[in-house]
Write a structure and sequence with these properties.
This protein has about 230 residues and is an all-alpha fold. The protein is built from 10 helices and no strands. The protein is globular.
Length: about 230
């Protein structure tokens, strides 16, 4: 299941280029030194991965608290349904209830900090830009966060988000090097594939929560085992 985070990031990285592309294009990399440029871009990605890992840790802990109350499997089903519904409902429906609005001030501060970092060219600047970039609002990241919650584990939630970030690296790196390189036809095909894959991930989370006894996909619930163990004591 963790691997789905990587595939989500890989397929959705075109969306990332569209949303975060301007930031990537504006990175103050040293274009006269290939090795230094590579190191700067690597630090940018490390910063993003750390931000995603932090987000996954926080929401993984949220999922863990629900797991303690025996709600993990129900949560997995609910999150799977939410992911599918989010794809099927028209975009205009969500634009009326923009979840970024309540934290607009925080996002504004992040953007201000990003602006200041672009004026610097020290090596740590690229790490900071990547880290701040990771906290900017993004629909695709929200989908990955749902997955992190469903794992009901801090480290698994963090790992899921790291895999998501790793999936975005190839296309984001290419975008930094060559800018707008994909033709319209390829972009349209990838954009069409993203909703399909999100629905597939949602279905996998639903199966996982149903506990049908399918190895690796829908493992049986441990509720009965826990109950029996308690009775023995």
């Amino acid at each position: 299941m963790v691997a789905t985070g990587f595939i989500l990031g890989l397929l959705g990285s075109l969306h990332c280029v569209g949303m975060c592309g301007p930031i990537a294009f504006m990175l103050p990399v040293d274009r006269t030194n290939t090795y230094k440029k590579g190191a700067q871009i690597a630090l940018y990605h490390v910063g993003r991965l750390l931000a995603y890992a932090t987000i996954g840790l926080v929401f993984g802990l949220l999922g863990k608290s629900l797991y303690i109350f025996g709600m993990q499997q129900k949560l997995s089903v609910v999150i799977g349904v939410v992911m599918i519904v989010a794809i099927l409902l028209p975009y205009k429906t969500f634009s009326k209830y923009n979840i970024s609005k309540p934290i607009f001030r925080i996002i504004s501060k992040v953007k201000t900090s990003l602006g200041k970092q672009f004026k610097k060219k020290s090596m740590d600047t690229f790490f900071t830009i990547g880290f701040l970039n990771g906290f900017l609002p993004c629909g695709l990241v929200y989908m990955a966060v749902f997955g992190a919650i469903a794992f009901g584990s801090a480290w698994q939630g963090s790992l899921y988000m790291v895999f998501f970030g790793l999936g975005t690296i190839p296309l984001m790196t290419t975008a930094i090097y060559v800018g707008k390189f994909l033709n319209t036809t390829i972009k349209q095909r990838i954009q069409k594939a993203i909703p399909v894959f999100v629905v597939v991930i949602g279905a996998l989370f639903i199966l996982r929560g149903l506990g049908l006894g399918i190895p690796y996909i829908s493992p049986a619930s441990n509720a009965g085992l826990v109950t029996n163990t308690m009775n023995c004591h």
